[in-house]
Amino acid sequence: MTVQECQQGLSRRSFLGWxxxxxxxxxxxxxxxxxxxxAAGSADPTAEAGAAYDFLGTHQSGITTPAQDRLHFxxxxxxxxxxxxxxxxxxxxxxxxxxxMFGSDVGTFGAMSGPYxxxxxxxxxxxxxxxxxxxxxxxxxxxxxxxxxxxDRFGVxxxxxxxxxxxxxxxxxxxxxxxxxxxxxxxxxxxxxQVAVHAVRNLARIAFGTAAIRWSxxxxxxxxxxxxxxxxxxxxxxxxxxTANIKAEEPIALxxxxxxxxxxxxxxxxxxxxxxxxxxxxxxxxWDRTSLREQEDIIGRAKGSGAPLSGGEEFTEPDFAAxxxxxxxxxxxxxxxxxxxxxxxxxxRILRRGYNFVDGNDGLxxxxxGLFFLAYQRDIRTGFLPVQQALAASDPMNEYIQHVxxxxxxxxxxxxxxxxxxxxxxxxxx
Amino acid sequence: MTVQECQQGLSRRSFLGWxxxxxxxxxxxxxxxxxxxxAAGSADPTAEAGAAYDFLGTHQSGITTPAQDRLHFxxxxxxxxxxxxxxxxxxxxxxxxxxxMFGSDVGTFGAMSGPYxxxxxxxxxxxxxxxxxxxxxxxxxxxxxxxxxxxDRFGVxxxxxxxxxxxxxxxxxxxxxxxxxxxxxxxxxxxxxQVAVHAVRNLARIAFGTAAIRWSxxxxxxxxxxxxxxxxxxxxxxxxxxTANIKAEEPIALxxxxxxxxxxxxxxxxxxxxxxxxxxxxxxxxWDRTSLREQEDIIGRAKGSGAPLSGGEEFTEPDFAAxxxxxxxxxxxxxxxxxxxxxxxxxxRILRRGYNFVDGNDGLxxxxxGLFFLAYQRDIRTGFLPVQQALAASDPMNEYIQHVxxxxxxxxxxxxxxxxxxxxxxxxxx
Lengths: 430, 430
Fold this sequence. Notes:
- The structure is a homodimer.
- Chain A has helices at about 5, 10-15, 20, 30-35, 85-100, 140-145, 195-205, 250-255, 285, 290-300, 335-340, 385-395, 425; strands spanning about 70-80, 135-140, 185-190, 210-220, 220, 275-280, 350, 355-360, 365-375, 400-410.
- Chain A has one domain (about 1-430).
- By secondary structure, chain A is of the alpha+beta class.
């Protein structure tokens, strides 16, 4: 709520709260207007501060939603053995997510509407900030189904999807256990990082006693577009990334490659997806000393325009058969674009939603920088797995990157009815 | 340059470069228009993507410039003993700063205008992004004047300002050597974090062989306003911060408390300032379990409105004599606002320019979160020192914070003539 509303003793929650909001599927534009769009005239309306997305929907938000500019991602360990704790947490998180995405605080803010001698329900740092296009996406890691000791803590071991595989060790992996795995995850994306951080912090607070943050990652700049209305951003190698990404405007491709379909098992995942998260450290200082020719040969695209080296412009399909003046094709067979392309044997399309990160520097004065890779797919076995097997085996980019964190999550379907909660299809009304 | 310009073989540098730009003191508004303002209609024109600040000026940018939303700060160790290396670096940095602040790339971008078999001069991740209000502020640490072994490497030991003190150990300090100190610093502030990161990365690249990053810090949200046109932001305790900050619209206060004056020594610092940087870890999980009453008593302000507990609204002056119904004043004598207030014995005003940070989490699942405190002052002995002595001795907030990094820098005056460079007043035309 705004300071004015606070001073007037009005809680946005009290008059625009859970029940009222749930009965109307308010579109982003209408809701944005309600809460006061700020940057009118901006080229990308989805990047406006006032933009708000609806929590209710067939699919969770934060997947095909136009990729916001900022990220806070957190993986949690469940610290309970009681399924009732887990379902209560998922109910609480769902309720809070609806409030946060609407731009409300979690609960009431304190002096004006809450008890003065209790801690405020909301931590307060987002008071006065608009919804900022916040999306919250919740996921279930392998540990929800069976913990590290093999125990079926919550009685859902037989519901683990086969598509949620334990990722194998890939050549070159140098994984940090403390930056990998997790029983639950929350992906918070927003146009304002303070809004994303506020959401994760308050969801972590709600989880106190049931789940604790295992690792978390901030991303400052998106490296993918998920809508054809967005320009293609650049990663920290300086190249446009995700040109061939699946976009929200491709419903058939989304059904084929991103959403779990009616023919897939288990049934509780219908309308969901699977997420692979990889923390990819880039040794940018070494990359920066590489010639432009070498950089472009490794990527397979022109650095300036993003066009494939076989010619055309950014969105021209690469022609892997086009030959140069010498004996080699214009796009190297082991270039990143060739190995990751859906036409490569065994590959299929995935929806990428990655973010650039810089977490200070290492002891050698090199920026601790890289790509926090996030990819959504219908089945990890046919999505990330074959692509990463091809890349790990022979991508010349491996000289400049190292995968240092890894996690996979089942992303349950969205909540379609007021009062519903994420995970209800798995745990029932329990 | 834009991709279009790149494809046309035009470099913005070549037709709007150093010489041409330097001859005109282009105002932010005019320059913003030139390079294509994006978010027309935004409430805060300085937050517009197209906003650009001039590198030339009596003072360096990034001090009274309206505080941008994002930060990348880097401290460097000089790895050379030759003064000529240092002055060349400062010249190169000054030239690059002018280009970066204008929204240009550093040097030329490569294929179209540079040698294809050399590394690109610019790293590329900001290609196509507008200037985004980038400011770059350069500073000199104690190590420039005398290194840790006491050597006068660059012949300027007798020019060290007395106002640039070595900060004493304060009660509660738990400083990490690896996050403290530095011979040089660069503060990059921008409305787009990718632009700030790009600037630090390319300046670090230019420094290769002469200086290496010692530590660096990203901040995602400003915690101070430096212009009365800005709303007061909130820190991660959820409180409005910096309400009483010195603002750009207070020229007398700036001359009294921020800018080094004509009567101050050494003369090369006239028009400069002194910066104290402190990395302050907040144990926000503990804070979040504290009652609203206790939080407000500690701060001395209302959490919602930011008004002092003696009454009024945010910008009402605190009345430290106002008594409550009991024997105590409404604002506790050891509250943060009382101890830090200019009316506290020995205190004077400083200009704060801090940022919220979250750097993942610690091993206990607590967010590695806090305030990256930046403060500019005319003399550290009368600015930060007495305030921090008072706070470290008795601020009840100390239960929730820990200072884990510390550094101080002399901020030389701005560059006023084309071809000039930061530090010229210290090193002469050398």
